[in-house]
Amino acid sequence: MGAYKKNLNMLGNSMVKCNMSRGDTTSQNQGESPSSRDKYLKRRKFLRAAGGMSVAGLLAGCAGNGADSEATTTEEPAPTTTTTEPDTEPSLEEQYPGLRILSPEPENAEAASHSTYTNMVTQEEEFYIRNHYPTPEIDEDEWSVTLDGLVDSDVELSMDELKREFPTETVFHTMQCSGNGRSYFDPQVGGNQWSFGAVGNAEWTGVPVSAVLDAYGAETGEDKWLTVMGGEAPDGEDIFTRSIPMEKVMEDAMLAFEMNGRPIPPDHGFPVRFIVPGWYGNNNVKWVSRMHVMDKMVYPNETWEPNDGRLYTHWQQYSYRIFGNNVEGPNFNEEISEFDTQGQMESAEIDHPYLYDQLVKSIVGFPTDGETVTHGVDGSIEIIGVAWGGDDDVESVEVSTDGGDTWNEAEFMRPTIGPYSWRLFRYMWDPEPGDYTIVSRATDDNEFTQPATISDQDADAANKARIMNDTYPWNQKGYGNNAYMPHGVDVTVI
Length: 494
Known about the structure:
25% strand
């Protein structure tokens, strides 16, 4: 599948007609005054609408609160005042009111509310942040991307050259941290304790990597690899490095410089981020400084590594892999031929799968966890959520309102905005008063379905991490969790 290209004419009718009722239902059910976070988000959306928006900005409110559209016509402009610049930078909480902060430095934060997952596109205020080092301060005019390795000649490309000399494309990509859902493992594993919110769907615009490689005579056969390095590591620290199979690179990888129609924010990789549509966020290298064409993935003791004492292999061979219980250390692979993560988990050839293509997954966005709701004016409650399958299409979504005992098929909601975007789904529910646990499970076109729960730590068959018996395997890093029961929401109907 090629990258989904921007087509305003095709999307226009869908965007105008998009009129979901979740926002009205929420306001009726909760009966509460807007929170400061809600007011902040409404104000941000009002200002963006007034100043022009991308396709992503127009789509973002499709399944959101109807009050957002009202704000664009009724809210009065703020009075002009003279202000003094603050002495300190705003905190992460102030910058991102829709996020739950896991660590302030390096910056790591996830969506704070399930309601994030009722919109087609995730705005910056609610898009998760995953950093290994503090966000660097970068002058775009002084930044360049080096291309070397198996190319006709090495080159350093400025941001101006990337933007001016190559074509641009746009893709909607659901990006998820591979550790999303880690906090649900028992016993708990180390690392940031992500729950449900380390995933977002955004519009990315940039240069197809294939165009850059072709322009400089890179070897791009399917047996080659592109190793991509970030430029954020402080002096003396290991370089964040990922090796991406050339087959995927040439298909749709991108050097992106815009997110949702605006320059990529610093915390998300300004001025340039490597985008791998459909694959876990760890492959989407931020602050790209170097791309190295190779005949294998990055491997310990590679001769091309600068002799500076810094590792370039940690996040490829030691981390972002699924290790079952009692595995003391990873085995190293120079190459693999299967990039679907679940396909690797089921393969006898790969002992410890690499986190590449995302596992099929879904999340309920409304009602939110712990919410008390009432029936809508038509006597029903509209359950809304999102589902995605990485490189693979989501074929169906089922919803259970009794904790997984019985299931009903949900329906997909329009518009669809490309093969790598999540899909909105809904299920119309007419319950009696009481307490309920709502869960969703998605199935992709490989007939892979989300498992129910996470296995016990000791339930690892021959140290091989597999999805078996409707359970997701406990693993040492808490990666890849797509079990539906931990992601359910408990609600009360009155």
